[in-house]
Structures are given as C-alpha cells and as structure tokens.
Design a protein that fits this description.
Structural class: alpha+beta
CATH superfamily of the largest domain: SGNH hydrolase
Distance between the termini: 94 Å
CATH architecture of the largest domain: 3-Layer(aba) Sandwich
Radius of gyration: 28 Å
Largest sheet: 11 strands, mixed
C-alpha cells in the first residue's frame, strides 16, 4: 500500500509526457498539411523593389494552394503548381514617395513592412568589392545622406559560405552596426546614384573572395574544365549567391574581382568573363541589363623599368594583371557593358585609403552616363589610333570632351609629401627585337608623341603594362587612361622568375 503514491506519480508523469507527445505530433502533422506560403530571403522588411519594369514575386506553398499578393493598391492571385511553386508578375510601377506593405496570403499571411520602389543593383565578385565599409576612412568622416534611401541586402553566405539561405535588408541609417559586413564600393556607388538621381537605391551584395571565376556561372553553362574533379570540389558562388535572387528585378550589376584575376586566371578569364555576363543575362531573362566592371588595382613591384613580362615560378606569377585588365576590356564588345579604370589605385586595406570611394564613384559615373543618361564623362582617355613615324610614335586619344594632362594617383602615399612628375610615365616602346624600353613623351593636343633613344625604329607601344603601373596620363576631370598595347603578342605561360 505504501507504493501506491509512487504508482500514481508514475502515471501522472506518463500522462503528461503522452499528452505532450500527442500535441507535438498533432502540430507537426498540422504544419506538414498546412505548408505555409514561403518567400525567398530577398523578400523582407525594408526592401527595395525595382521601378519601371515588370516585377515578379515568387515562392512556395502547398500544391494547388491559392496565393494572393497585394502591393499598394495592386492585387494579383495565382495557384501553386504541382511542386508547390508559385509566381505572379506585376506590371511596372513608378516610384512612390512613401513606403508600402507587401502582403502575401495563402493558408498563412506574410506582411513585409517598409517596402519602397527605386533602382536595384547587384554588387558582386570579390577583391575590391569585398572591402568592408568599416575599412573606409570616408565612412568615419561624414554621415550618409538620404539615410532611408540606400538599402543593402546581403546573405549570410556572402560573408560565410557555411551559412546559406538567410539574408536581410539593411537601411543605411542603420549602417553603423553593419558596416563591417557591407561592401564599401557598393555603398559609395549607391550614395552617388542616390545623390544624383534622387531616388532610392537597393544594393544586393553577392561577394566572396578566393574562388574560381567559373564558380560564378551556372553549373550547366560552365563549359570546358568544369568536369575537373578539383574544380567540382570548389563552392558554387552562383548556386549560393546568385540563383536565390533570380528573377528578382534589377537595374544592373557592378562587378570587381581580385584573386581570380591573378596568375593563370588572368589568361583563362578572357573567355570566362564574357560567358559569365551572357549566362547571368540569360538566367535573369530580363534582357541585356547593364554590367559594369572595375579593373584590378595595382599590386606588386613598382620598380619595373618598362613592362611586366608574364612569368611563372611554381605558384608565383608576375605580370598577370595587365592581361587581366585586357580581359575586362574585352567584355566591352558586349552590349551595355562598361569598364571603370582603377589601375592607379592600391592599398585598399589601408583605412586611410580612398580607394573604395573612388572605385564606387567611377562605377557610378558609368551608370549615371550610360543608364541614367546624364551628360557627363564616364571614362578617361582611350587610345584611338597609333602611327609609327620613323623614330617616333604618335598615339591619338579619344578624350570624351576633355583634354589630356599629367596628374598623379589620387591615392598617393600619405606619408611623404607627394611629388608631381613633370614628364610622361608609363609608356614603353619596342623595336625589331623583343625587348621593351621606357619611352619619353610629350602631350601634343589630343595626342602623345613618344621616342626612346634605345629604339631608333619603334614597332610597338604599350602603356601601363605592369602589375603596379605608374602611368600619369589623365584627363582634366581626373580620370586615368586605361592600359593598352599595339602588339598582338600572347604571354608565354612557361617561364621562371
């Protein structure tokens, strides 16, 4: 009889446990049957939706479930297909002055707050695009204007490949807590557009360093080399960063890369970069949206006398960046592309450097002129023609309404007082042999006349053909001349340093 209370206590605990398990099973079953409507992470509070073009909204629900979407006064309804996918497409919206709610309703209800219309740009790649806002001294100097008009979306996987599938939108007034994560180049690009166009700018950040350029292309479109077992082990930037945001409507893409443009990647990327641009445009099915690329900043030995020869010694490669810059210039054959020349910048990790600010601004110049139709110059002098005249070479330039001048890098050393050179630098000439010699030159109107004592009969000319170029030919607006060459030689892959 003394054990009866113990038995009663046992049955009480058993009943409580059984009841808890039954309730758990009930709710688990209910949730499976219910299959709440879901959205991709790119849809969230404080988001920017693209104005002026058709606007898709998509997600998952139970097969056959009716899903309605309300944005402002516009309402649409659809039914999920057999796999649970659903999608609606709104007609183009013009940009309203006030934020609105985006409401999605199926068996459950999702309400997204503070949604505004504006222009959405993707800032992607690595290298300079990955430099965080916290490392830019410019951020510390002034408060961002139009605080609620610049908004960033970034996924956890853009910062850490082990965290996939989550993301959030951040308003620029809250950047103080997030500037260690957000792209400085992307922010300054957005700030210039917001200030010049007086509209909201949304930046979708898709950045990651030290991965093959091929990884940014859809797996089925990578082409030769993608079957390599070593390549297949690499993380897929496309699957983790790009695919989840397609077909979110965008204005265009700004791109920069670092590690993948070094070494032998500088040569292979000549064919990969155009394929990447075509692939993204095809996957988005939005037409040839703008794709603007920044050249790699200078890096390496600054004391090379004339040109950097492509040389390899094991894993070390010298002289690859000129070919990387030429590969980026090759993408300009595609429609709606542009190149921001940043060869004169460097030391982006230095907090005192204005490199990220200048890269963002030069990319913004491309967008302001080519996308927003501002009557401004968006690029520095470009080689138009080359003529060989006995012992000298004349290079004529397209100056885009400006004029040629000597200048110095805007990120010159902050230590010693910088000295302005009074002579042209960066040019090299070659005669019948294969050796290059530094050239002396002078500006003659919209041309540069070059000579070299060691080259009595020049046959070829190059400009800024170095990993760390020192050319000082600019226009009056402070934009640098991009590197170029007259010869068609190809680099010799084998060689020793």
């Amino acid at each position: 009889m003394e054990s009866l209370p113990q038995h009663n206590e046992f049955f009480k605990r058993f009943a409580v446990t059984l009841r808890g398990r039954l309730i758990g099973i009930f709710f688990l079953t209910f949730s499976v049957v219910r299959a709440d409507v879901t959205l991709p992470p790119v849809f969230g509070d404080h988001m920017v939706l693209q104005q002026g073009i058709t606007l898709p909204v998509w997600g998952y629900a139970s097969p056959g479930e009716r899903v309605s979407v309300l944005f402002g006064k516009c309402f649409q309804e659809t039914k999920a297909d057999d796999s649970g996918r659903w999608r609606i497409t709104f007609a183009p919206f013009s940009s309203p002055k006030k934020s609105q709610r985006l409401i999605i309703k199926g068996k459950n209800r999702i309400e997204i707050q503070d949604v505004i219309l504006g222009d959405v740009w993707v800032c992607a790649g690595g290298g300079s695009m990955s430099i965080p806002l916290s490392k830019s001294l410019e951020t510390m100097k002034e408060r961002p204007p139009f605080d609620d008009q610049i908004r960033f979306f970034f996924t956890d996987s853009s910062l850490d490949p082990h965290h996939y599938g989550k993301g959030r939108w951040v308003v620029s007034s809250s950047l103080e807590a997030c500037k260690a994560s957000l792209s400085a180049v992307g922010y300054y690009f957005a700030r210039d557009l917001t200030s010049s166009q007086h509209l909201a700018i949304g930046m979708i950040q898709c950045t990651r360093d030290a991965i093959p350029l091929d990884s940014w292309i859809h797996a089925n479109k990578r082409g030769a080399g993608s079957e390599n077992p070593a390549f297949l082990k690499q993380p897929s930037a496309f699957n983790e960063l790009i695919l989840p945001i397609i077909p979110f409507s965008i204005s265009g893409v700004i791109w920069s890369d670092g590690e993948t443009l070094l070494g032998e990647g500088a040569l292979t990327n000549r064919s990969i970069l155009p394929r990447l641009i075509r692939n993204w445009r095809k996957e988005w099915a939005q037409g040839p949206f703008p794709f603007y690329l920044a050249t790699p900043v200078r890096s390496g030995d600054e004391n090379v006398s004339s040109v950097d020869h492509y040389q390899r010694n094991g894993a070390a490669v010298r002289g690859s960046l000129p070919w990387a810059r030429e590969a980026i210039a090759g993408t300009l054959e595609l429609s709606a592309t542009g190149m921001a020349v940043t060869d004169d910048l460097g030391d982006l990790d230095d907090p005192s450097s204005q490199g990220p600010l200048l890269i963002g601004r030069r990319l913004a110049l491309l967008a302001r002129h080519r996308f927003y139709a501002e009557e401004i110059s968006d690029s520095g002098p470009e080689c138009r023609s080359i003529s060989f005249e006995k012992n000298k070479v004349r290079v004529s330039f397209e100056t885009h309404g400006s004029h040629l001048t000597l200048a110095m890098s805007p990120v010159a050393s902050q230590g010693d007082f910088p000295r302005m050179s009074t002579s042209l630098k960066g040019f090299a000439l070659r005669g019948e042999g294969g050796r290059w010699f530094p050239a002396q030159g002078r500006i003659d109107g919209e041309s540069v006349v070059l000579t070299a004592d060691s080259v009595p009969s020049p046959k070829a000319v190059r400009y800024n053909w170095k990993d760390s170029p020192d050319g000082n030919l600019y226009d009056f607006k402070g934009l640098p001349t991009r590197s170029f060459r007259s010869d068609s030689d190809q680099p010799i892959v084998s060689g020793n340093l």
